């Protein structure tokens, strides 16, 4: 005999009740779109049908400027620790693509990763990946990158800076649809521009800005003539008493974001642990924020464990299987 259930005064037989796993897409999609990133991942992990449900969800902070980014902490395995400083919650999550990888840039939920000779964009929460053409270098050391907008945009431009030697800087550029990188070299010694610690693109003037560890910024424009598209400026703290103002940076930047965040104590890093972090670009109401890269050495002077960290906006992007850098 079939059991009967009463809902709002109406009786339903057991054979009329639809199991949760059989929810139609038109009901499942709005549910997914109303969830935060962690709940969305949990929903998609229930079953195959739920994982393939259409969703336009990106993040609960997408429309809220100046919200703190999340932090991914990992070693050389797929197991990562995810920190949400806005609500002080910690999650354990697997990001296999971060294994043996170096993060060159983080912007709008996309990471630019270099892994075993390959370079690609990666959204860790949706696992979306967009491969880029072969990079001229097979190894990365002091390379720092910036990209103008999400890689799904036809206007996306990527630039990667590194020092070839004590007197030469190299900037490789790739525009959406390009099959090869364009190399630019400039005679700039390490005393005029030190170790690069972050990069950002400014839409207003179409210029990349790279910051070093000695309060200098290098500007690089892909539009100007080669002989004058790379300029170095010294960054000075604004003073009301200044007689002359040469200009302002079109963005804000944080020099010691990780150190000042209190995450080191919250995470509980031991004295023998060193950590290198990849900064990120965070949209703001008036101007974007550049979080610089940081290297924190083991406090006891002896590093037994080298960890990596990435600041990221928690976005969820679904892309077509045919999506590529060339399409």
TrEMBL record:
Residues 17-64 form the F-box domain. It holds the Pfam family F-box. Gene3D superfamilies: 1.20.1280.50. It comes from Fraxinus pennsylvanica. This is F-box domain-containing protein. InterPro entries: F-box-like_dom_sf (IPR036047), F-box_dom (IPR001810), KIB1-4_b-propeller (IPR005174).
